[in-house]
Amino acid sequence: MVHLDAQSLRDREDVYEWYTTEIDSIPPAMRRLLEEHSGLSPDRVIPHIAEVVRRRLVHQTGLDASEDLPSIPLACVVADPRPRFSSLRFLNLNLSANPHYGDILHRLTTQSETLLDAGCCFGQDLRKLVFDGVPPRSLYGLDVEPSFLELGCDLFCDRDRMAEATFVSGNLLKDGDENADTSANPGGGLSQLQGSIDVIHASSLLHLFTWEEQVRAASRLVGFTKAKAGCMILGRQVGALEAGEYRGLHEGSSSFRHNVETFQRLWAEVGQMTGSKWKVDAQMDLEDVTPGVNLGQKWMEAGTRRLHFVIIRE
Length: 314
Hints:
Strand order of the largest sheet: 3-2-1-4-5-9-8
Helix content: 25-40%
Shape: globular
């Protein structure tokens, strides 16, 4: 069982369920964050989000900055299929909904620990942590797309307030810092993260890669953690009852979707490669992702379910 190839996806009418141009409402938690953390008036919240989204699409497509958001051609967005942005999923605060969030807050506010949001997009979960009392100096954000880090400061109107947080753009699959963009906080590339992190939030990240790439990316994440028991890596991602390699959304690409058993095997391999040992607690949702819910497009295969995980260093 495999994904449709990218061209077939672009030819499907139901791709519109992925790409969103209309913002009618936003989750209450995000609205509160934008009103109370960012200082936006209630009537400015949705227009402000729409303006930041428009700027991102203009940057991505090279279209005239005067284009209205709904007039930007769908094909320009589908050519770069990243649903976290194009379906406005960055408006969901995933980390604060995790059952371990209270424990993470305690660690960050009372024990001077650090957290990295790997694949942070606009840094929305980091802003929620700051809103809940975590000092920005304890927080790190990593994304492969540098414009997300810049637009995050625009979205949340907090460039000065987040000045002590560390934002890095880089590629987990490439060695060294030659592919890192640290313009948002020029303290160094990915190497500055080495051995510095107590908690890593890694949602919607590893499922982008093949098995071999996941081993490399996860090993890189392990290298970012402190060499002590209790370090945590947690998140959620797309999984499958029938684990295996699935065709990706870019031409010629593929990704590995896990069930609980294969995810545990992955981390056993990562542990061997890195000389570390991890306790893996992974669970899959009891029901398939359904059409119209988050990533539940009609073209998604039966047996597609969310995989939730918490991994603790022993």
